[in-house]
Design goal:
heterodimer; A: alpha/beta; four-stranded antiparallel sheet; 12 helices; B: elongated
């Protein structure tokens, strides 16, 4: 069976010729979660966007379920892939119910179906549909907005879910709640997920494999346990950058 | 007062309707041209400066002169109402065009990015996202244009197009302040009324501001 997502030697360059990604090859198995980890500007988001062709590669290709994503209809491709972006990108003029079911509305599905599906999904992401369906984005907290964004990405029941720093703007406690909710949800739904983050802890918690990007190149792609044990200097540097405060405090306590 | 109203009341009512008709037709024509043109400009921004500049130039032509220029033209000049409607349409173009363009240009690029990423077609993006989000802006342009048109339409009486300007011009010619006011007060009231109604509509479409995440 082909991988759900297969990046083959993908390169992206700016119109001015600056390389953003060079020769990335990476496969994501059906039903698994791959985390793209790396510092800001390392090309994580760019790689993610080549999947739904919000960015077109200048070289190589992306296979979605074994088929080049350039050989399929663009609108159909995008509707078939769930996408959650940082800072939610909710539409300020839609109430929650309409926003969640927007892809279904774009597909001309019936009002009843849209209503049923959005209420079902709101419940699945932990929001009471009766209380939230008619609210507007400005009436929601950051965490609630992210839940709505996730519900919207799942509306058309896509096999693939792209998540671009979905919890980046949240406080640590809300972030932990969201990670738990996502883990439970993915355990049930078995989606293929590509998730961008710069948070090592989130990567270890959610990922089946972790792909570290640095300056547009793929440095390592390993399961969480092996990632932590890796001898690669770039991986080790990334790991060392976390929990510095914790280490400093415990060193002081020992001294 | 009552003698005045019984003498002129019927005429004021007829002329007010005529005034409304001139303004209404001109606003309809101007919207039908300026809203699509404004949308087109957001797709081809390099045309924005020359096109908006042209509409701006139209706006600067003194109205009485504009009516005069149009009068000798074939077909157009045959009926004063045609002249009036063409001139009023020209004056209404700029505010509608400029606000449609600015309203759509001003939409958060992030929102448009999401609309594309979710797989909305170009038409769906226009009608479900861009126009609703720019609606209060576009309506503000319509409102400015309407008030301008109601005012300028009084001058259309100079070329015999009717409307409340009739009473004003007759009043000026016969040095009759009562007659001038009989035209001026309903014209002003009409402008205020339309301004208020469109203002209500504009507020109805205003988008609540997203609170920044604290």
């Amino acid at each position: 069976m082909p991988a759900a997502l297969d990046f083959r030697n993908v390169s992206v360059a700016t119109p001015q010729g600056r390389a953003l990604l060079s020769g990335i090859s990476l496969a994501v198995e059906e039903g698994s979660t791959t985390v793209l980890l790396g510092r800001s500007g390392s090309g994580k988001t760019t790689l993610l966007r080549t999947v739904n062709r919000m960015v077109e590669p200048s070289g190589g290709e992306v296979l979605v379920h074994g088929q080049s994503n350039r050989s399929v209809d663009l609108i159909g491709l995008r509707r078939g892939i769930g996408y959650v972006i940082q800072e939610t990108g909710l539409f300020p003029h839609f109430h929650v119910e309409r926003d969640v079911a927007l892809v279904l509305e774009a597909q001309n599905r019936s009002r009843e179906e849209r209503h049923r599906r959005s209420h079902e999904l709101l419940a699945a992401v932990g929001l009471d549909p009766e209380a939230f369906a008619r609210r507007y984005p400005h009436q929601l907290s950051g965490g609630q907005r992210q839940r709505v964004g996730l519900a919207r990405a799942l509306a058309a029941d896509p096999a693939i879910l792209l998540m671009d720093e979905p919890f980046g703007a949240l406080d640590p406690l809300t972030r932990a709640e969201m990670q738990d909710m996502l883990r439970a949800l993915l355990g049930r739904l078995r989606k293929t997920v590509l998730l961008v983050t710069h948070d090592l802890d989130e990567a270890l918690y959610l990922g089946d494999q972790i792909a570290l990007l640095d300056a547009g190149k793929l440095v390592a792609c390993l399961p969480p346990q092996e990632f932590l044990r890796s001898e690669d200097p770039a991986v080790q540097a990334y790991i060392r950058a976390f929990h510095r405060g914790e280490r400093a405090a415990s060193n002081e306590a020992r001294a | 007062m009552s003698a005045f109203l019984s003498r002129y009341g019927g005429e004021i009512a007829t002329l007010t309707l005529e005034h409304l008709w001139l303004t209404g037709v001109a606003m309809f024509c101007a919207s039908a041209m300026a809203v699509p043109a404004g949308i087109w400009l957001t797709r081809s921004p390099r045309w924005a400066r020359p096109v908006i500049g042209f509409a701006n130039v139209l706006q600067t032509i003194p109205s009485l002169a504009f009516f005069g220029f149009l009068l000798p033209l074939p077909w157009l000049g045959e009926r004063a109402a045609r002249v009036a409607i063409v001139a009023l349409t020209a004056y209404a173009l700029l505010p509608i065009l400029r606000n449609t363009y600015a309203g759509i240009q001003g939409i958060d690029p992030n929102v448009l990015f999401v609309a594309r990423a979710l797989g909305l077609t170009g038409t769906q993006r226009l009608f479900k996202v861009e126009l609703p989000l720019a609606a209060s802006f576009i309506l503000a342009g319509l409102r400015t244009a309407t008030v301008t048109c109601v005012g300028i339409a009084t001058i259309a009486a100079a070329v015999g197009a009717g409307g409340l300007g009739e009473l004003i011009f007759r009043g000026v010619a016969s040095v009759d302040n009562g007659l001038i006011l009989a035209g001026a007060i309903p014209a002003a009231a009409l402008a205020l009324l339309l301004d208020g109604l469109l203002g209500l509509l504009e507020r109805r479409f205003r988008i609540p501001v997203q609170e920044t995440a604290a």
